[in-house]
Design a protein that fits this description.
The protein is α+β, with helices and mostly antiparallel strands and about 170 residues long. It has 2 domains: about 70 residues, Beta-grasp domain (Ubiquitin-like (UB roll), Roll), CATH 3.10.20.30; about 70 residues, [2Fe-2S]-binding domain (DNA polymerase, domain 1, Orthogonal Bundle). Helices cover about 35% and strands about 15% of the residues. The protein contains 6 helices and 5 strands. Helix 3 crosses helix 6. The protein is globular.
């Protein structure tokens, strides 16, 4: 039996010792926002937050969740009470989504970046996202979206960073 908090809800799951977290989330709990890309910890599509830190759910076993706080992409909305999280809003507004497969992992990595540093530089954003691969874009829109989300979450004046501003 594994006991943990998932997206703010207490969970108690009977999981085999070799059950991967990505499979537990997707197959057992129906939280399909977490994607499995490579299954080897290389792409970041399966990123979730465990105790506020990014973790690759394809490399974690369910038993490693014991007593931990887990946030999936579905849990970000819970944090805001209603509607999209500011990071999700920025991804939409800045066109940082193409096929969308990498987006949940990117968004959760972005949340971690902003929580660690509410005013990250573009270099810090790029470094923070370095474990997440996107096969569709050159990352410019994703970096801009994270920058805009950080700006919005900091409660700064309504002007936000200009799209395509110099790094």
């Amino acid at each position: 039996m594994v006991r943990f908090v998932l997206n703010g809800k207490d969970m108690q799951i009977d999981a085999p010792p070799d059950r991967r977290v990505v499979d537990l989330l997707r197959e057992d709990l129906g939280l399909t926002g977490t994607k499995e890309g490579c299954g080897a910890g290389e792409c970041g599509a399966c990123t979730v937050l465990v105790d506020g830190e990014t973790r690759l759910s394809c490399l974690m076993l369910a038993v490693q969740l014991e007593g931990r706080q887990v946030t999936t992409i579905e849990g970000l909305q819970r944090e805001t009470g209603a509607g999209l999280h500011p990071v999700q809003e920025a991804f939409v507004e800045y066109g940082a989504v193409q096929c969308g497969f990498c987006t949940p992992g990117m968004a959760l990595s972005a949340v971690r970046i902003i929580r660690r540093n509410p005013d990250p530089t573009r270099a810090e954003i790029r470094e923070g996202l370095s474990g997440n691969l996107c096969r569709c874009t050159g990352y410019v829109k994703i970096v801009e979206a994270v920058e805009a989300a950080a700006w919005k979450m900091s409660n700064k004046p309504p002007e936000k960073p200009a799209k395509d501003a110099a790094p």
